Amino acid sequence: MLKLTTTLAKACNSTALRCISTTAPVNESDSWFSKLLVRKIEPTKESHSRMLSDKEIIYALHTHNVRPDSMEDYIKNYKTTVELIRDKKANLSQELVASWTVQVGDMDQCLHLWKYTGGFEKIDQAKEDLWHDPEYLGLMKDRSKFLRSRHLQYLLPFSYWPQIEKRSGGNIYEMRSYRLKPGTMIEWGNNWARAINFRKNNNEAFAGFFSQIGRLYNVHHIWCYKSLQDRKETREAAWRSPGWDECVAYTVPLIREMHCRILSPTVFSPTQ
Length: 272
Description:
Residues 59-160, 173-270 form the NIPSNAP domain. This is Protein NipSnap. By secondary structure, the chain is of the alpha+beta class. Helix content is 35%, strand content 29%. The protein has one domain (57-265): Alpha-Beta Plaits. The protein has helices spanning 2-20, 48-52, 71-88, 120-130, 134-144, 185-195, 228-239, 244-251; strands spanning 57-66, 94-104, 109-117, 147-157, 172-180, 205-213, 218-225, 255-265. It has an eight-stranded antiparallel beta barrel. The N and C termini lie far apart (73 Å).
């Protein structure tokens, strides 16, 4: 009797595993439930970051939570810091891509996106140089008076996203941030490599990154719009595109947490 029970248990476990490891729906007759199952990811000897990105270009995302009564002083301080790095440190492979203040979401927050060309070696060189500059250290010390907290992530750009292009005029940006289940980054990339094609009609795609150091399995998608109304119309148009709903159905099960912020460029931001 014990032997029969063990055999039945193994058979049930085998059946369950086959169900969980389902592949994408083959035809439209598949149930909606099958779209919620994460597709099987095959083992690979390549690191996920090497398969999804060029590691010679690294971005640093600085998130600063500012004291509500100190935003003006903080902005002046950071503007001076950017000018110092640009003028005095021309030998550094470091370039400011964008600076934003949060308008909707985490209020009293500023985001700064820096680009390093040449891999982590250039980040090490820049850090070594700046941390021996008295003027830079003085600016950092003054800035600490205006901050509640801060966070730094090193990011890699998804290779299938369009190249970052600086924008002009009065734009707003949306940063949609996702915390994924560990081990699902390749699955995310496979789906978004198709999904991004549905979001190119209005030149809305600005940048797409995944974290390399800092909070891991984080993804940031940054979109550019003329206004909140433009955002609404553009997103509704994407849902009318055949195939977009399928991409969403496959990526939702990969997400543990997500949130969005509406951003406004600072006066010294290279992209407006």
